[in-house]
Predict the structure.
Amino acid sequence: MGAGAQLTVTDMRRAARHPVDHKVIGEHRRLGDVHMHIVNISAHGFMVEGDLELSRGERIVIRLPEVGRIEAHLIWAAEGRAGFQFERIIRFDDFMRMIDSLQPNPRLRRSR
């Protein structure tokens, strides 16, 4: 039995996504530093805009405010966008602090 995220893609799609505008540098074992622009995020994963030289299933490590380093793997990529699933779910308290940090304008935050 392999280790890693146990959520199905369907479970992930139901998670509340928060719009963000956050640039991050991911660490990839083959490509090294990968610049990404996160446009929405949930406790289960995130979506980026821009073309990536990654294939489905490849892993990347990013650093997020309040969460720190977290690994994610590519679930899908199409038309200049890509969706990643975290290896672990971000705890609710950490996630809310991260959203507050990434969305300083309270009008952009979803109601809690």
